[in-house]
Amino acid sequence: LIDGQQAAKEILKSSGLTSRLFQKSLYCLIRLGLVDRVSQQRPMSRENSYIIRLYLNLLLIVEAAYRQEIGKRSQKVLKRCVTDMASPGKALFSDLDLVNGNPESAAKRISVHFMEQKTLSDGRLMLLTSFSKLLYLLIMRMKKLLGKKRALKTIQEMIRALVHFDPGKKNAETLRYAKKNLEDLARQMQS
Q1: Looking at the DSSP assignment, which residues form a beta bridge with residue 37?
Q2: Tell me, what's the pLDDT at 1?
């Protein structure tokens, strides 16, 4: 969009310029800072929405385990793990609050942060790796704070929850990815 009002295609049609001349002119205006690019908000794909919901459910299992042991201080653990992440994960989870917020509002905030990312060439992979990294950090911190036994128990709870999350197996590949990562984490924990 140009100035948040009209798409460049609309302006091209009404300008009477050739496409090539319009592109050159627009480029010059952008470089001079006279025109700002505003990205159009693309709708979130169903698959990416599914990934966010799936991993939020897994995060809620981890948060419940922490809350059972350390109460609302679990939010501090989450914030610390998010702080330890690199971008884009850090940006995705910057204002995540699993203690006081509800899962639906958390999913919406993550979706907004996701759509704000500049590089969405493979958004699916970015979501999967960011959520996996956050789970890894939370579980490793759990091992340190609450013990290996509690961390393994939480991983097993997450694996069992995956069976019930997608009864129709519409997203079998994403479920396999999540399960394999959790199993790998459990193996790493035991070694």
Answers
A1: 2
A2: 39
